[in-house]
Amino acid sequence: MAIEDTLKSLREFDLNDLDLDNIGSWPVPILVLLWVLIFAGVLFLGYTYHVEGLQQNLARAEQQEVDRKKEFEQKAFQAANLDAYKRQMTEMEDSFGALVSQLPSDTEVPGLLEDITNKGLANGLDIASIDLQDERAQEFYVELPIAIVASGSYHDLGSFVSSMASLPRIVTLHDFSIEMVYGGGDLRMNMIARTYRYRDEDS
User: Fold this and answer.
1) Helix intervals (H) in the chain
2) How do beta strands 141-152 and 187-198 pair?
3) What class does CATH assign to 103-198?
């Protein structure tokens, strides 16, 4: 009976009769609807300004957790292989020392020039000149170009170039040019031999 009375009062109620100054006299269903709307609005604002921020913080925390796990796994792997890294470092230092020992010092350059001359003579070449060029400092080493001019047969020149690889010090060959010597059957070869020395702090 009460429900029928409520529905009847709603049908007879005119929305224009709503008085904001006397909300207490509004029909119960309209008051209930009003409270539901207010409650929904409060929930929406609470989610927007509070829950959503918490979710963003949670997402950042989860990403940080993933990053920390990756970092931990990487450090755990490095710690587990620390002994292997130390052995590898020792091997690299030994290899570096062996390479550095192949780089001539300033006092060994005359001996290197003598070795180059002897290689040329041993292969039947006529050494016209061996000239030291200006040094070129690089990041870890100093490069010393040596201009070489030699004459001989094609076979002798090839043997000389091959024999340079057997020198006790590192020597690389660059900028070859070969031309015929007029009035004879020999060839003249111009090339740059580069040797290297370790660059210390004073170089």
Assistant:
1) 2-12, 28-46, 52-80, 82-101, 109-122, 154-163
2) antiparallel
3) alpha beta
> β-strands 136-137, 187-198: how paired?
unpaired
Write down the domain spans for the chain. Answer: 1-80, 103-198
Q: Are 146 and 104 in contact (CB under 8 A)?
A: no
- The secondary structure element, H or E, covering residue 39 is helix 28-46
Tokens standing for residue 129 = 């000149």
CA dihedral 39, 45, 50, 54 (to 10 degrees): 100
Question: CA-CA distance, 177 to 189, in Å (whole number)?
Answer: 6
Tokens of 100: 């550095």
| Confidence category of residue 1, pLDDT binned at 50, 70, 90 | very low
- 168-199 per-position pLDDT tens digit: 778 888 998 888 877 767 889 999 998 887 76
71-103 residue pLDDT tens = 988 888 888 888 888 888 888 888 877 776 666
The one-letter amino acid code at 177 reads: S
